[in-house]
Amino acid sequence: MKTLSRRGHALADPAAQLRVLSGRPSGEKSDRVSAAPDFDGALADAGLAPLSAGSLDTLQVNVGKLCNMTCAHCHVDAGPDRKAENMSAETAEVVLELLEVSGAGTLDLTGGAPEMNPHFRRLVTVARGLGRHVIDRCNLTILMAKGYEEMPAFLAEQGVEIVASLPCYTADNCDAQRGDGAFMKSIAALRMLNALGYGTTADLPLTLVYNPVGPSLPPPQGQLEADYKTRLAEDFDVRFTRLFTITNMPISRYLDHLLETGKYEMYMEKLTAAFNPAAAAGVMCRTTLSVNWDGSLSDCDFNQMLDLPLADSRGKGARPRNIHDAPPAELLKAVLDRPVVTGSHCFGCTAGAGSGCTGAIL
């Protein structure tokens, strides 16, 4: 599979995705706009509007779109061809300065394959030196790639939590999303991580991530975790700490899949009907700040991919939109207690038990 960007696809442009999400099909030339799901209206009806961010618990940093894989459900449209979109040393240093002054307890590193960024190790070692918890959102197969043989040992030495995508415990379903052979490479990586203590000791947590293969909501997280643990232990002698279930967001390559299969409207109706106010109250954007590879700021990783910047300050003019726009302490003051930018895609995080980078909300 090629990325949307490599194919020159219209949906490679976040503006085209937003047109679909707002009710206008991508590339439509007429002025007719069908009704789009009203997320702000759902919040208002639940007494949760306006949604706002408060404390900063997690600094989530997308270090680039470069990846050794091109997964069918990827909301980043990451792949081997996205080499130019990779965080610079200068931006990485500002990220570390912001982390230090913010007091955020967690640095959450994502991509692409974050390990492929040349400054990944510095981000990890400095953050750990500051006493912060560090998460590596790993696709597992990168740990088996040439040139990354020492990465598992490095992660273990630093005490980094690995949060790894494994969309199913069977090869057919996993490979359908991630490519032929991805499942067995992932199993080999998991066994290697187990040998280092990941998933078998409290100091080295190994979290797996499930997302549905089809246009449906994830099953109950606790029940699926038990199934995963049984099947992976019995079939492959693999252990892990916990499982996150994450709903597929209707953006980027998954949006393209929904449109190509004629299931977009059905999926959005399913997400909208399952809106859960309790889940909406606990969405990750309320305690997370998302930093893109170029330093631009968003409320969450999904808004980042849609090029949705932070909202302006009410009555106070423009809010910093990039970590290079202001000194870290000044920037931190400006981004706290901000209104969260929302849209119809947000139904993906608030359907059923809710969904986010830390799995089910409820």
TrEMBL record:
Q: Which domain of life is it from?
A: Bacteria
Instruction: Could you list this entry's UniProt keywords, alphabetically sorted.
Output: Iron, Iron-sulfur, Metal-binding, S-adenosyl-L-methionine
Span of domain Arsenosugar biosynthesis radical SAM protein ArsS-like C-terminal: 217-360
Q: Which residues form a coiled coil?
A: none
Could you say which cofactors this protein requires?
[4Fe-4S] cluster
Q: For the Radical SAM core domain, which residue ranges apply?
A: 61-201
Q: Tell me which Pfam families the record gives.
A: DUF3641, Radical_SAM
**Which NCBIfam families does the entry link to?**
rSAM_SeCys
Please state what the protein is called. Answer: Radical SAM/Cys-rich domain protein
Species of origin? Alienimonas chondri
| Source taxonomy | Bacteria, Pseudomonadati, Planctomycetota, Planctomycetia, Planctomycetales
